[in-house]
């Protein structure tokens, strides 16, 4: 599997990329690989920024004494948003991964994740 050039030096992003590829377990197109690269890079970046925020806090004080959201917190939120969009593009959300029940060979039926309705007896 060819890991995109822009994540090769980011060890954590490369690890996320490889794990996602294993999870998908299907023939991946060029576009799938690029979206997985974006997913991996953004999750890696979010993890790194989250650790910094945990240590230093999300709020920063400027030269005038005004409290504002730290730029790293803003970047973390943007990275997580891009990660979520990549997850959707790859079909990895819970809703998209709904259980598939194979009734007959070659015919798959999607099952709902909702609980079965309760039977009411009077």
What does this structure look like?
There is one protein chain. By secondary structure, this protein is an alpha+beta fold. It has one domain (5-94). Helix content is 49%, strand content 12%. It is built from three helices and four strands, in the order H-H-E-E-H-E-E. The protein has helices at 11-24, 30-56, 71-89; strands spanning 59-61, 67-69, 100-104, 107-110. It has a two-stranded antiparallel sheet. The chain has a two-stranded antiparallel sheet with strand order 3-4. The longest helix is centred in the middle third of the chain and has 27 residues, at 30-56.
SSE map:
Layout: H1 11-24, H2 30-56, E1 59-61, E2 67-69, H3 71-89, E3 100-104, E4 107-110
Antiparallel strand pairs: 1-2, 3-4
Describe, in short, the structure shown.
With 122 residues, the chain is α+β, with helices and mostly antiparallel strands. The chain has helices spanning 11-24, 30-56, 71-89, and strands spanning 59-61, 67-69, 100-104, 107-110. The strands form 2 sheets. It has a two-stranded antiparallel sheet.
List keywords for this structure.
single chain; 122 residues; alpha+beta; two-stranded antiparallel ribbon; 4 strands; 12% strand; elongated
**How many β-strands, per DSSP?**
4
Could you spell the SSE succession in H and E letters? HHEEHEE
Strand order in the largest sheet: 1-2
Q: Main β-sheet: number of strands, strand sense, barrel status?
A: 2 strands, antiparallel
* Amino- and carboxy-terminal Cα gap: 60 Å
